Amino acid sequence: MKVILMKIQILGTGCPKCKALTEATEHAAKDLGVAYEIEKVTDIEKIMSFGVMMTPALVVGGEVKIVGKIPAAEEMKKLLSSEAK
């Protein structure tokens, strides 16, 4: 059986909010039992290539899902579980 990894990208320069978004994402993915890979994108030009002007931002499967905030745990789980299907 092949495990499909969910590709998650955290866009941000490494500020405390970026770290909090990373932690929230990891907790939600682990709680859901989702196989995931997190990439931290810190390069401003790469961040802007996503059309994001405010960080932190969450990208799942190449699609920007959250910009400029850290969602509540339940919101994050809901978002990731809908992507895992």
Describe the structure.
- With 85 residues, the protein is α+β, with helices and mostly antiparallel strands.
- The protein has one domain: Glutaredoxin.
- Helices cover 41% and strands 25% of the residues.
- It is built from three helices and four strands, in the order βαβαββα.
- It has helices at 16-32, 44-49, 73-84; strands spanning 6-11, 36-41, 57-60, 63-67.
- A four-stranded mixed β-sheet has the order 2-1-3-4.
- Strand 3 (57-60) and strand 4 form a beta hairpin.
- It is globular, with a radius of gyration of 12 Å.
- The relative contact order is 0.26.
- The mean pLDDT is 91.
Short summary:
This protein has helices at residues 16-32, 44-49, 73-84, and strands spanning 6-11, 36-41, 57-60, 63-67.
Largest sheet: 4 strands, mixed
**CATH fold label:** Glutaredoxin
* N-to-C span: 16 Å
CATH architecture term = 3-Layer(aba) Sandwich
**Total domain count:** 1
Poorly predicted regions? none
Radius of gyration, taken over Cα atoms and rounded to an integer in Å: 12 Å
Query: Count of DSSP helices?
Result: 3
Q: Please count the beta strands (DSSP E, at least 2 residues each).
A: 4
Strand content range = 15-25%
* The level-1 CATH class: Alpha Beta
- How helix-rich are the residues, as a percent range? 40-55%
Mean pLDDT: 91
Strand order within the widest beta sheet = 2-1-3-4
What's the arrangement of secondary structure elements?
Blueprint lengths: L5 E6 L4 H17 L3 E6 L2 H6 L7 E4 L2 E5 L5 H12 L1
Parallel strand pairs: 1-2
Antiparallel strand pairs: 1-3, 3-4
What descriptors fit this protein?
85 residues; alpha+beta; Glutaredoxin; four-stranded mixed beta sheet; 4 strands; globular
